[in-house]
């Protein structure tokens, strides 16, 4: 028996009355390339250049359903090291389709980069696609995407109270893998203490929204050579964390991290690596 027109109208009214988070749960992977927000980002970043999906060249790792929408781990794995087979990654772009600010990170790689693999933690505001797009040295664009079920990450309250966050603001930690095989890229990570406020969180006492203030630029250099430059947004989680790979130097060298936020604050950390 077919549903009546009245029943269909009632169902539509209930759907439209549902909150955004509930409607987001109805979305499926079918909205892939038709998402207007992705199309807007694609046009702004890449124009009309073709983008191929090739998991042998780039693979995005992300949970199907996030345990915490404010802290979603993401990893990008490239199918080659920088310079291998004469191929390298010039730029890596991370887009979260349905976030208030979809462009989460744009990373440009320098000669000190060993691999363009990249790991971080992000906020996801609605069910939808997360995309990693790499621009290769031969001019090709390749993409990997994953549909992630998470909502409310950009307006979730911070994990620390405001006073503790202010006390730790700007503290940085660099760490580098010590047991890599000779000649192989070294895995390293950067951790920055910063609230990375989105400006979308309401203070439950004052009923006012917290001020947006977040890490905007990250620059890494090793042994005097550029490693990577990243332009990031509040889509990165509180206390931004990056994992990256650097090219080992026989004589060692100094790893330098510089971070700037939207308030004009500048933070720097250095780590001397031995031969």
From TrEMBL:
Matching SUPFAM superfamilies: E set domains
Highest taxon of source: Bacteria
Residue stretches making up the Sulphur oxidation protein SoxZ domain: 179-270
Residues of the signal peptide: 1-24
Keyword check for Transcription regulation: no
Residue span(s) of domain Ig-like SoxY: 43-154
Keyword field contains RNA-binding: no
Cross-referenced InterPro entries: Fuse-rel_SoxYZ, Ig-like_fold, Ig_E-set, SoxY, SoxY_sf, SoxZ_dom
Keywords: Signal
Protein name per UniProt: Quinoprotein dehydrogenase-associated SoxYZ-like carrier
Species this protein is from: Azohydromonas lata
């Amino acid at each position: 028996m077919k549903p009546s027109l009245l029943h269909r109208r009632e169902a539509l009214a209930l759907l439209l009355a549902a909150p955004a988070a509930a409607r987001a749960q109805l979305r499926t992977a079918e909205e892939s390339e038709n998402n207007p927000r992705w199309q807007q980002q694609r046009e702004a970043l890449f124009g009309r250049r073709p983008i191929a999906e090739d998991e042998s060249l780039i693979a995005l790792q992300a949970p199907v359903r996030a345990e915490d929408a404010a802290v979603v781990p993401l990893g990008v794995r490239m199918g080659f090291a920088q310079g291998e087979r004469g191929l390298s990654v010039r730029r890596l772009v991370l887009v979260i389709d349905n976030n208030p600010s979809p462009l989460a990170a744009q990373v440009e790689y320098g000669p000190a980069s060993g691999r363009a693999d990249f790991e971080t933690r992000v906020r996801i505001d609605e069910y939808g696609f997360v995309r990693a797009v790499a621009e290769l040295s031969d001019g090709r664009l390749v993409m990997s995407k994953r549909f992630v079920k998470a909502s409310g990450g950009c307006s979730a309250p911070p994990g620390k109270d405001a006073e503790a966050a202010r006390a730790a603001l700007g503290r940085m930690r660099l760490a580098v893998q010590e047991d890599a095989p000779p000649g192989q890229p070294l895995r390293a990570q950067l951790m920055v203490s910063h609230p990375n406020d989105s400006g979308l969180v309401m203070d439950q006492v004052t009923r006012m929204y917290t001020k947006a203030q977040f890490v905007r630029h990250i620059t890494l250099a090793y042994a005097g050579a550029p490693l990577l430059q990243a332009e990031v947004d509040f889509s990165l989680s509180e206390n931004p964390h990056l994992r990256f790979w650097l090219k080992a130097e026989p004589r060692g060298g100094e790893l330098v991290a510089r971070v700037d936020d939207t308030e004009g604050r500048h933070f720097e950390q250095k780590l001397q690596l031995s031969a």
